[in-house]
Structures are given as C-alpha cells and as structure tokens.
Amino acid sequence: MTPVIALSDGNCFYVSCERVFDPRLEGRPTVVLSSNDGNIIARSPEAKAIGLKMGDPFFKVRALCAREGVAALSSNYGLYGDMSRRVNAVYEQFAPDVVVYSIDESFLDFTGLADPIGHARTLRATVCQWTGIPTCVGLGPTKTLAKVANHLAKRTPDLDGVCDLGDPAVRDKALSGLPVADVWGVGPAYAARLVAMGVTTAAELRDLDPRQARLALSVVGERLVLELRGQTCLSWDEIPAGRKGCAVTRSFGQPILALEDLLQAVASFASRVGEKLRRNGVAAPRLTVFMHTNPFGPGPHHSANGAVTFLEATADSTELVAGARQAARKAWRNGFRYSKAGVVCEGLVLAGQVQASLLGARDRERSERLMAALDASNRRFGRGSVVLGSTAGRSRWTQKAEWRSPRYTTRIDEVPVARA
Amino acid sequence: MRPVVFGPLLPLPLVGFRVCCGFPSPADDWIEDAIDISRLVITNPAATFLWRAAGDCMTPTIADGDYLVCDRSLVPVAGDVVVAVVDGEPTVKRFRLSRGRPQLSHDNPKAEPFAPSASTEISVWGVVAWSLRAHRPTR
C-alpha cells in the first residue's frame, strides 16, 4: 500500500496562539519577538504585507511598527507550548501515529484512508474549532513530498489549506514550479551547489541520478532525490535536519593538554547548545561530550566520549554546563593532545512537553527567567558577553519581555477574563 | 500560584505493602484513585479552557470572579451560557435562538440589555460547560 503522510502545521503559529485569547489582534498586523524582544520571530499575514521580515531586529523597525499600528508581543512560550500540546492531542484522534516535528509541525500517518483529502479537511476544521488555531495540511507518499505539499497549501489560497501530491501528474507539475531551495533539507549551501550544477527546481533535483546526488551532496542528497521520487528513505519517526539533535563542536587552534582547559571549552559549547535549544523551544534529555586527538597528527591517538542523562529534559544552560563538565571528566584521559571536542544533544523534546520528575524538583520558573536573561544579554552585547561557565558570578538579571501576553492556559492567576 | 492541570494527573502510588512491621493494610486490595474534580468538569481536555468572569450582567447565573470552564468542542444550543466575542471583546452571554437566528442576552434583569447594532461583530468563542464559584473567598 502506498503510504500517505500528512504534514500539518499551524499558520503563523505564535501569532495565532495570541489571537485565540486576544481577538482584537484579529486583522491587525501582529509580530512576536524573540525572548529578548530582539528580533521578529513570527508575523501575521498583515505584518508580512507591510514588509516586516523574519529576523528583523525590532529596534530597526520600531518606527515603522508604530506608524502602521503593529502589535508587537514578547514571546510567550508557556502559551505556545500548551497550545501545541492541544493541537497534537487533536491530531492523535485523526491518525494512529503522530510524530511531532517542531512546536508547530507534526507528521500524521494517513495511510489506508479512503479519502485522505476529506480527512485532512475535517482535521483542519476540528483543530480550528477546538483550539482556535488555523492549520495547513500537505499530503504525499513521503515526508519530503508531504512537506512540499504543505508548503504549497500555505502559499496557494485556492487550495483552502489542503494540498495533496499523491497523484504523480499533480506532483510533477508542483515540483517543476518549486525552486530547489524550497525543498525540505536543502539549505543555502546545498542550494548554491545544486544551482551551480544546473539544478534549479525540485523536479530537476528529483531527476538527478541518485549516485550523482550522493557524490555532490552526500547521502542526504541521495535521500532527497529518492524521497522526491516517492520512495521512502526517512523512517517514520526519523527527522532529517537539525531540530531533533543539536551539537556544538570545535577544532582547537592549539591542542588541549589540560583537563581544566577542556572543561572550559565544553562548558562554553554546552552554554551555546542551551541557547540553541531555547531558541527552538526544545529540551534535551541527555548530553554527550566527545573529544579526540588529530587522527593525522603525531603522538598517541585517543577518541572518547562521555554521556549524562538528566532527570528531566532540560534547556537550562547551568544544567547543561554541569552535565557537560561531568561527561567530559568521565571521558578525559591524561597525556593526549586533543584537537577537537564537542557537545551533542539528541532525542530532543518540546520544552512544553517535558515530563515532570518528582526527583527533579527544581525551580523551573526561576531557571527560565535566568536563561531568558542570559540569551537577552548575549544577543544584545554579542555572543559570549555573558557566560555561565564554572565561575558563576552572582549577578542580578532582569528579563526583557515587556509585551508578553498572560500565560492564559498554564497559570491560574493569568486566565483570560470575559466581561459579564 | 499553581498551574492549572488539564489532562491526566501524575499518579502517586498509595499502596503501603512494604511496611516492615505490623500487618499489611486491609485496605490495600481496595485502593482506588482519589476523586479528581478536573475529570468531572473537563470532558475534552484539548478543547477546554478556563476563563474568569468580570462584571454582573450574568447574575445570578455567573457572578463576578467566577471561573468558567469553556469547552470549544461543544456546539452551542439554545439556553447555553457562552463566551462570545463582541467587537473583539470577550464577554459572557446567554445563547438563544430567535426565529432560528442566534441571539445573545444578559441574565441579570437589572443589567443593561444586550442590544448589538447591525454592524456589531459577534462570534461564539466556546460553550461554558461549568462554572466554579468560591463560597469562602480565598483572597
């Protein structure tokens, strides 16, 4: 049986979450800012229409926003995480298997349904009725094609939020019109290489010889070609790019001989990993530190890794740094010239879905505030201007989130108010 | 402040079979879960949201400060209490049908009657399935 995979995602998810509880934002250009109130990380269609871009530093567009009456909100991850959980709870009722890809995207197994398009329409209507979140659904025989279909569903209003690429003729037409850079997993570097090879559309990528793709873009490229042909390469719960894992690794200019130096290095890597996790709204259940000597260099060679598992998945840099130092101590051997090390986190989970552990009773609220402040300072004064490291100074932080909406669904004293 | 918990609560094992002295509790075979009020008032966790009422247009049904358990998956029928968005503002109203057309009203006869103009935009946000009122105010 040909698999049918649905990719459902929330339309400008963060803005939609805000609008559910503040209906006055409906129709008004609205943006959500990163946790430092630094950059635009979500835009309503009205905000896109006046030219605001993803990643725009807010201070640069502040005057424009004031002039156009743009509602600018600080990010409210407590709310977004809870709404994401609700949306996924609805998905669970529509598919036997759901894989959460990110805070606003999930893959659903629609294989074997008599009318997958009708099912997708009912799914959209139900999610919107129950949670207030509008969604788009892409259908295809592989994850990569489902992702393409979702992309088209979002950009083609006539499709009414559902796009099916199950039919080969429809698929061929869609892929011919799609720039290769818009294919899932094709980053800017791959796109540039492909264009240099004369591959500009998704259809041309599909028609590439898989072996040639492998040579040019490694196994990732070969998989892309096959997935675009409708051949499953990514197993059901496998996520290809970045977000399921997160790593920070560096080669050292000078080999490291002392444990203390290595500990310092991995502490800074772990701190950076924490920043990445928080930016993506995910948390790590465990962390691995690896280190190795230069395999081509002189002297004895050594390669080692150590891992720690956290009681609760975490994105807190203090915990990640402590874990990384512990893991590095485990792996360290004296007498080697380490040329490279890294911190790797895999099996990431959404921060909102972290399983609370009785033993892991720590002050999550305080930790979130601290991390937000850390990210804020680093974004403002440059990366690394504020570090945790092992020297843990006792500074006082204040979070910059001036325009955060109430945590409507997770705090009893912040529930929305209806006038009676 | 404690977060509102929707959905399954963390099960706590209450069985004391590993007592090292004395007899095992005769109740061990009859352990049941404690009553959980959220299971009474929340039938569809994904679609249920808590609101709070402010004002007295809906007394005696809804008083100022009452918590409203609002289920968005319910289709409003005549007689329901609903959270309705009126020109962008969330409000609590009684939902009625007048000659087949939906209509909103206030329960409090002393309150100003709800009289929307032709241009007023109205939509039902969700049906109030339950309301909770503290009879001994805690704060």
Compile the SSE list and pairings.
The complex is a heterodimer of chains A (420) and B (139).
Chain A: E1 5-10, H1 13-21, E2 30-33, E3 40-43, H2 45-49, H3 58-68, E4 71-74, H4 77-92, E5 98-102, E6 105-109, H5 116-131, E7 135-140, H6 143-155, E8 162-164, H7 168-176, H8 188-196, H9 202-206, H10 210-228, E9 246-256, H11 259-279, E10 282-293, E11 303-314, H12 317-331, E12 338-345, E13 349-350, H13 364-381, E14 417-419
Parallel strand pairs in A: 2-4, 7-8
Antiparallel strand pairs in A: 1-6, 1-7, 2-3, 5-6, 9-12, 10-11, 10-12, 10-13
Helix pairs in contact in A: 4-5, 11-12
Chain B: H1 37-41, E1 48-54, E2 67-71, E3 81-86, E4 89-98, E5 101-105, E6 122-132
Antiparallel strand pairs in B: 1-2, 2-6, 3-4, 3-6, 4-5
Structure described in brief:
The complex is a heterodimer of chains A (420) and B (139). Chain A contains 13 helices and 14 strands.
By CATH, the topology of one domain in chain B is Umud Fragment, subunit A
Strand composition percent of chain B: 25-35%
Shape field of chain B: elongated
**Number of extended strands of chain A:** 14
Q: How would you characterize the largest beta sheet of chain B?
A: 6 strands, antiparallel
Q: Average the pLDDT over all residues of chain B and give the rounded result.
A: 87
- The residue fraction in helices of chain A comes out at 25-40%
Tell me, what is the CATH class of one domain in chain B? Mainly Beta
Tell me about this structure:
- The complex is a heterodimer of chains A (420) and B (139).
- Chain A is of the alpha+beta class and 420 residues long.
- Helices cover 40% and strands 20% of the residues of chain A.
- Chain A is built from 13 helices and 14 strands.
- Chain A has helices at 13-21, 45-49, 58-68, 77-92, 116-131, 143-155, 168-176, 188-196, 202-206, 210-228, 259-279, 317-331, 364-381, and strands at 5-10, 30-33, 40-43, 71-74, 98-102, 105-109, 135-140, 162-164, 246-256, 282-293, 303-314, 338-345, 349-350, 417-419.
- In chain A, the strands form three sheets. A five-stranded mixed beta sheet of chain A has the order 5-6-1-7-8. In chain A, strands 9, 10, 11, 12 and 13 form a five-stranded antiparallel beta sheet that branches.
- In chain A, a hairpin with a 2-residue loop joins strand 5 and strand 6.
- In chain A, helix 4 crosses helix 5 and helix 11 (259-279) runs antiparallel to helix 12.
- Chain B is mainly beta.
- Chain B has a domain at 43-132: Umud Fragment, subunit A.
- Chain B contains one helix and six strands.
- Chain B has one helix at residues 37-41; strands spanning 48-54, 67-71, 81-86, 89-98, 101-105, 122-132.
- Chain B has a six-stranded antiparallel beta sheet with strand order 1-2-6-3-4-5, with no helix packed on it.
- In chain B, strand 4 (89-98) and strand 5 (101-105) form a beta hairpin.
- Chain B is elongated and about 75 Å long.
- Classes of the chains: A alpha+beta (420), B mainly beta (139).
- The A-B interface holds A 21, 23-24, 26, 86-87, 89-90, 129-132, 356, 358, 408-413, 415-420 and B 1-4, 6, 10, 44-47, 49-59, 62, 64, 67-68, 72-73, 83, 85, 88-92, 125.
- Strand 14 (417-419) of chain A pairs parallel with strand 1 of chain B, so a sheet runs across the interface.
